[in-house]
């Protein structure tokens, strides 16, 4: 047993981080916020070329041929960078929807009553709609959807009149958890950095235990979520994935909250990035198996009853 | 990222499982928890059995993975835990193994492994708890012995121990971390008075130990004089690294029993309670995964557990308390009956955020040593 990342996995993670730092730096992030829900198609294409969507497709189908653990590392980095767009839906559609693997097609899928990035999507995959292999034309979906004033400036949302309670694939849940993990790790780092630099009462605020202990708990939440998410990637067990999502949601939301608190007044501004992490964490926590459903899955498994479809 | 065990590790697991299945049915009944000599005899008997079967040194085995498997399988099979041998096997033993001379290792390690000698811990003092380095128990050199005077507290197994791993101040003028020495004190020496302390759970799990000019031979010193703080850090890293592996497995079993009890009583129909139990299941599985993560890291670093243990302990101690609070919620009014299962465990769980470094101290460790935040108040 060696639970640690292999050298290849470390290299993959570092490679994605470098790509995102180069191609989606803070300036690009803030530009995306101001652009208000338009997707950078050139970046989408670059992600496709880098194998972001085709990662788990077999090599003979033009994919990278890697597995769920590697996908989790990719999505962790995406979450860390606050990379926008229907990344999970498009990743899942690779090999199924033409152009998805290459980053030429933007694919979204409803989850419950909500669908993200509908105005920018080329294809909507909706397994609750029986006809057409679970696909409905984007135009048809747009006609019956109502725009939502999304809490997250980087996740445009529409509400569907009839909730599509289609089964959520376990890997979608896990990839959302991986994004939450990346966000939690990032807000922890940001809070720690601020606590080291910001001085009050003649010393860095990180020297005060009240602040120090907030930061320590952030790390604990993040590392517990990391163990859960990575292990779920290895076992691919649906109950373990549900548990990982539960802990990663908690880590992302609470770390963003604590990061905001450590930043004091600046944390409440639009200019600081922490609100972007918190809002996206809220969006992810509500989608792809929210907490109550995940807890029910875990509870049912304890009694050995089959996990109910959430 | 690999959670699969190697063929060798699986063989070890299979052999252990077979052995446990063969010896556990013949084990005598567990002694009354209030009967210390009987507890000592029981725990040492079990250790002797492990020794004869070739498992005695599993706690010091070069492979943390093997230790993980051993603790996992022992707990699953319902085997006894280390009990009175805790300090010998998990504190003093590993410290002597790492820091002792050849003669010291030969003197003290085999009796611990055979279950012949029991150790207790003499670290904390009434005025040196979280601030351990402020300890004042004094040792003055007199020929070939240290003469020790002072008081220790929270000393588990003191009534039945043969040896005490003792921290003493040998240089009062040095900076406080630099004047401490680690001694192996024989518990039958003249001048030692043991007074049992009763815990809030009603049992006497530890004691106060009064030392009045106790003579400890100089050859019983582990490490150099005044180097005891560094030696101690070795001990504490062992405690935080691997001490709770079996307990996490046990907590997962308790949680499943709790779910069945809740279904039987109808408490399961309470959405809030049922989801609380569901969340705990995610929590304890994650703690098990974090253990595997820490073991993998320890494996890579040559067996010495790292400070990841502090991250684990912070979360686990809280989760354990939440587990037994949830059990009380399932029991309802029966939570007030100490004759019912889980209620004594609920009481003892209260020590987990205090013993072996309070949660507040653990957060300082995480913040300062892992996150690199400045020291301060």
Poorly predicted parts of chain B? none
Helix content of chain A: 55-70%
Poorly predicted segments of chain A = none
Coarse morphology of chain B: globular
Cα-atom Rg of chain A, whole angstroms?
19 Å
The N- to C-terminal Cα distance of chain A equals 32 Å
- Would you give the CATH topology of the largest domain in chain A? Butyryl-Coa Dehydrogenase, subunit A, domain 1
How much of the sequence lies in strands of chain B comes to: 5-15%
Tell me the distance between the termini of chain B: 39 Å
Percent helix range of chain B: 40-55%
Q: How much is the radius of gyration of chain B in Å?
A: 21 Å
Mean pLDDT of chain B: 92
Number of helix segments of chain A? 12
The CATH homologous superfamily of the largest domain in chain B is termed Butyryl-CoA Dehydrogenase, subunit A, domain 3
Structural class of chain A: mainly alpha
> Tally of extended strands of chain B?
8
CATH superfamily of the largest domain in chain A: Acyl-CoA dehydrogenase/oxidase, N-terminal domain
CATH topology of the largest domain in chain B: Butyryl-CoA Dehydrogenase, subunit A, domain 3
Q: Give a quick account of the main beta sheet of chain A: strands, pairing sense, barrel closure.
A: 3 strands, mixed
Write the layout of secondary structure elements.
The complex is a heterodimer of chains A (310) and B (377).
Chain A lengths: L6 H17 L2 H10 L5 H9 L18 H14 L5 H7 L13 E2 L3 E5 L6 E3 L5 H4 E2 L1 H7 L1 E3 L8 E8 L5 H28 L1 E2 L2 E2 L4 H27 L2 H25 L11 H13 L4 H12 L8
Parallel strand pairs in A: 1-3
Antiparallel strand pairs in A: 2-6, 3-4, 5-6, 7-8
Helix pairs in contact in A: 1-4, 4-8, 8-9, 8-10, 8-11, 9-10, 10-11, 10-12
Chain B lengths: L6 H17 L12 H18 L10 H14 L8 H14 L2 H13 L4 E4 L15 E5 L2 E12 L6 E7 L10 E7 L5 E6 L8 E12 L3 E2 L5 H15 L2 H21 L5 H30 L7 H24 L11 H7 L9 H12 L7
Parallel strand pairs in B: 1-4
Antiparallel strand pairs in B: 2-3, 3-7, 4-5, 5-8, 6-7
């Amino acid at each position: 047993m060696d639970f640690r990342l292999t050298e290849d996995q470390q290299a993959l993670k570092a490679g994605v981080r470098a790509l995102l730092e180069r191609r989606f730096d803070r300036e690009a992030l803030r530009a995306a916020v101001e652009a208000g829900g338009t997707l950078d198609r050139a970046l989408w294409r670059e992600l496709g070329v880098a194998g972001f969507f085709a990662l788990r497709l077999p090599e003979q189908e033009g994919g990278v041929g890697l597995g769920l653990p590697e996908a989790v590392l990719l999505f962790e980095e995406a979450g860390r960078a606050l990379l926008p767009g229907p990344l999970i839906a498009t990743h899942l559609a690779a090999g199924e929807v033409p152009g998805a693997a290459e980053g030429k097609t933007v694919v979204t899928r409803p989850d419950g009553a909500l669908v993200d990035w509908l105005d920018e999507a080329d294809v909507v995959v909706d397994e609750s709609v029986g006809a057409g292999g679970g696909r409905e034309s984007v135009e048809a979906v747009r006609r019956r959807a109502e725009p939502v004033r999304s809490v997250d400036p980087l996740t445009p949302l529409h509400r569907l009149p009839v909730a599509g309670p289609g089964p959520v694939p376990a890997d979608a849940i896990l990839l959302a958890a991986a994004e939450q993990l990346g966000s939690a790790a990032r807000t922890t780092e940001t809070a720690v950095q601020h606590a080291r630099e910001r001085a009050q009462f003649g010393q860095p605020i990180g020297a005060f235990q009240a602040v120090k202990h907030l930061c320590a708990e952030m790390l604990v939440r993040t590392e517990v979520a990391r163990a859960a998410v990575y292990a779920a990637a290895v076992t691919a067990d649906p109950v373990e994935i549900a548990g990982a999502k539960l802990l990663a949601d908690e880590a992302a939301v609470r770390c963003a909250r604590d990061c905001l608190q450590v930043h004091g007044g600046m944390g409440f501004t639009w200019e600081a990035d922490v609100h972007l992490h918190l809002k996206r964490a809220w969006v992810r926590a509500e989608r792809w198996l929210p907490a109550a459903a995940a807890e029910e899955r875990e509870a049912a498994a304890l009694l050995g009853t089959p996990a109910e479809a959430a | 990222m690999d959670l699969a065990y190697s063929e060798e590790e699986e063989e070890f697991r299979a052999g252990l499982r077979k052995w446990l299945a063969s010896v556990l049915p013949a084990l005598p009944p567990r002694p009354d928890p209030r009967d210390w000599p009987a507890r000592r005899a029981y725990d040492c008997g079990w250790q002797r059995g492990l020794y004869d079967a070739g498992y005695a040194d599993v706690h010091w085995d070069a492979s943390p993975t093997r230790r993980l498997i051993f603790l996992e399988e022992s707990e699953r099979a319902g085997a006894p835990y280390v009990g009175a041998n805790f300090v010998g096997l998990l504190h003093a033993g590993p410290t002597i193994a790492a820091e002792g001379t050849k003669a010291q290792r030969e003197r003290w390690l085999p009796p611990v492994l055979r279950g012949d000698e029991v150790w207790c811990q003499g670290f904390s003092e009434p005025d040196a708890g979280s601030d351990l380095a402020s300890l004042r128990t004094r040792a003055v050199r007199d020929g070939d012995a240290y003469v020790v005077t002072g008081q220790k507290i929270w000393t588990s197994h003191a009534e039945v121990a043969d040896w005490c791993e003792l921290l003493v101040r040998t240089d009062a003028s040095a900076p406080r971390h630099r004047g401490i020495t680690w001694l192996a004190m024989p518990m039958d020496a003249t001048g030692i008075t043991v007074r049992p302390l009763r815990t809030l759970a009603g049992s006497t799990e530890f004691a106060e130990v009064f030392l009045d000019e106790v003579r400890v031979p100089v050859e019983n010193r582990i490490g150099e004089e005044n180097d005891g703080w560094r030696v101690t850090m070795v001990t504490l890293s062992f405690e935080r690294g691997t001490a709770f592996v079996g307990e996490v497995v046990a907590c997962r079993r308790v949680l499943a029993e709790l779910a069945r009890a809740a279904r039987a009583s109808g408490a399961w129909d309470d959405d809030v309670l049922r989801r609380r139990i569901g969340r705990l299941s995610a929590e304890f599985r994650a703690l098990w995964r974090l253990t595997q993560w820490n073991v993998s890291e320890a494996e890579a670093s040559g067996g010495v557990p790292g400070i990841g243990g502090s991250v684990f302990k912070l979360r686990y101690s809280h989760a354990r308390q939440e587990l037994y609070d949830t059990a009380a919620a399932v029991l309802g009014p029966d939570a007030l009956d100490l004759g019912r299962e889980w209620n004594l465990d609920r009481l003892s769980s209260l020590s987990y955020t205090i013993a072996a470094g309070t949660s507040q101290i653990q957060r300082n460790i995480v913040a300062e040593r892992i996150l690199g935040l400045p020291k301060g108040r």
